[in-house]
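Aggregate trends can hide what the representation actually does to any particular protein. For completeness, the protein is quoted in full, as a sequence line and a line of structure tokens.
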Amino acid sequence: MNNSYTILQSARSGVAIYDSSEWGKILVSDRDRLRFLHNQSTADFESRQSGEGCDTVFVTSTARTIDLATGLILDDEVLLIISPNRRKYLFDWLDKYIFFADRVKLKDVTDALASLTLMGAESTSILAQLGCTELTELPLHSHQVHNINGIEVRIAIGTELGLPGYRLICDRANASVLQQALTNLGAVTVDEDAWECLRIEQGRPKPDAELTEDYNPLEVGLWDTISFTKGCYIGQETIARLNTYKGVKQYLWGIKLVGSVAVGTSITVDGEKVGVLTSCSQTDAGIMGLGYVRSKAGGVSLKVMLGDVEGEVIDLPFVRHEYPV
């Protein structure tokens, strides 16, 4: 466990690398690609230029969450990076909405491209040592192609967790060489257990846990992925109504626990159920969970019970609530 704690500390204050190659990657191309994604998800794609990017949420017609994705705008394509367990589902879902007159093509390139997430306070220094210095002043999700040790690498600002860092994307055949170059400069490898700890600590929602058809993006806290001015898209009417009338009934929060609790356990206050635990993990800071709590029950610092285990509601770095309690 001590080694895991070292990894977590490196990811926060040093430099660490996570192999995110199994995250789904879909290329969206042809003339209507931006309009298509604009109409199928919560973000404003039509105002984006090549070299820019954004996070977006794909939702059902009733605004229930399917996946949180990142779109990188290329010259003639958009590269969507999606959760590993949503690769086929989202590809088929998008394909269903391509109609006869649409000039849109989809291609699953997950197996062709590797992606490495470089994270931590020293990640910029690592890239500078490799000759990549032009990205430091650009906005989140901006991306450029660089040559690292003879490998063509697309570097995008930001990580899946909200920690400082970068996503590095290259051909699968070159992934091991790129990873070795980063490791040689001090990057510590993040395994799946450490990644899950970081995900929960930061509050990155995951499909089948925090992202399900029980919740909408406003409840999750993904306000920054939503354009409230772009007009019609799938799920737009519900999201606009919830925003206008402040109709969000529950929020995703962190839960600091004094003991281990099974996912799915009810969250209670004075014996009354006010929510449910969706994720839980042991970290170097103690046992941390994610869960939805009814807005009327309270927010940060609220004392709760999960069975016979005490907990306290805490804020999450990755998500934000537009009108918190």
